[in-house]
Specification:
Elements lengths: L9 H19 L3 E3 L22 E3 L20 E3 L20 E3 L20 E3 L22 E3 L20 E3 L20 E3 L23 E3 L7 H9 L1 H7 L3 H17 L18
Parallel strand pairs: 1-2, 2-3, 3-4, 4-5, 5-6, 6-7, 7-8, 8-9
């Protein structure tokens, strides 16, 4: 006799498994909830999640979430929130009031703006906003007031400039800016004295601020990635020899003259390198 074939949709299976995870967490007081790739498109499919105040870690990556409810802030013990690889196009301001949130991953989403006051996180250490549609105009006024921030990932967005206020991130150790449209870096970046990793590859940079030489970058534990930029010839030549040669060169008086000349000419000459084509980015999809 043939066995009956289950006609239960895949989404229903995923829903029941999601409910099971939440029920078990409620019963066992499990502080870490993993709901990766469950086809979740709304927090309504996560009944009771926002009442699990004992939870310290939630992973919701690789789903289809479009928004995050303000009630996420009810999770007062949450330390790690991973929302990467969803369809999120806005974030609630309440997120930045969470008292214990240390790591927030919103990479690979569809963010083109951030809420006003977003920089109010009291203890945030790692913020990943890479692979979105953000630019310098999307950053709220207090964005660079996160004193506790150690790592900031803004790669694969649409930044042409960085505000000079970046100098306020005094504890920053990692700054990811790869794959943007950056035309220049602010001189104030030289005030980030704790930086150990700086990723600026694949932008539209021709020169580096001389102040970059103030950073302790040539050390054995430091990383400076700067390939795939239209560097002026002297920087390109030094880079072929090694990063330490670039940093020594930009300390010279000859380079300061070149930098100042380039800074005054670039805005008037109009010879700006073209932007890269990002029309096929996943963050641009509107499915």
């Amino acid at each position: 006799m043939n066995q009956p074939v289950s006609c239960l949709p895949v989404t229903a299976n995923k829903m029941s498994k999601t409910k099971k995870v939440l029920d078990e967490a409620r019963e066992t007081k499990n502080r870490e909830i993993d709901l990766v790739d469950r086809g979740i498109s709304t927090f309504d499919e996560l009944p009771g999640l926002l009442n699990l105040v004992f939870v310290t870690r939630i992973t919701l990556s690789h789903n289809k979430l479009k928004s995050v409810p303000p009630g996420i802030a009810n999770l007062i013990n949450l330390e790690i929130l991973n929302l990467s690889n969803n369809h999120i196009d806005d974030l609630p301001l309440s997120l930045s009031s969470m008292p214990k949130l240390r790591i927030l991953n919103c990479s690979i989403n569809r963010l083109d703006t951030l809420p006003r006051g977003f920089g109010a996180f009291p203890v945030l250490e790692v913020l990943d906003l890479s692979y979105n549609n953000l630019n310098e105009n999307a950053l709220p006024g207090n964005f660079f007031m996160m004193d506790s921030l150690r790592a900031l990932y803004l790669g694969d967005n649409e930044f042409e400039y960085l505000p000079p206020e970046i100098k306020n991130l005094k504890n920053l150790q990692i700054l990811g800016l790869r794959d943007n449209d950056l035309l220049e870096l602010p001189r104030e970046i030289g005030e980030l004295t704790r930086i150990r990793e700086l990723h600026i590859q694949n932008n539209r940079l021709a020169v580096l601020p001389p102040e970059v030489a103030n950073l302790d970058m040539p050390g054995p534990k430091s990383v400076l990635k700067m390939e795939e930029n239209p560097w002026v010839t002297p920087i390109a030549e030094q880079y072929l020899v090694g990063i330490s040669h670039v940093l020594e060169y930009i300390k010279t008086e000859a380079y300061r003259i070149l930098y100042n000349r380039h800074a005054s000419n670039s805005k008037s000459a109009g010879n700006v390198p073209p932007k890269s084509d990002k029309s096929k980015k996943a963050s641009r999809a509107r499915s």
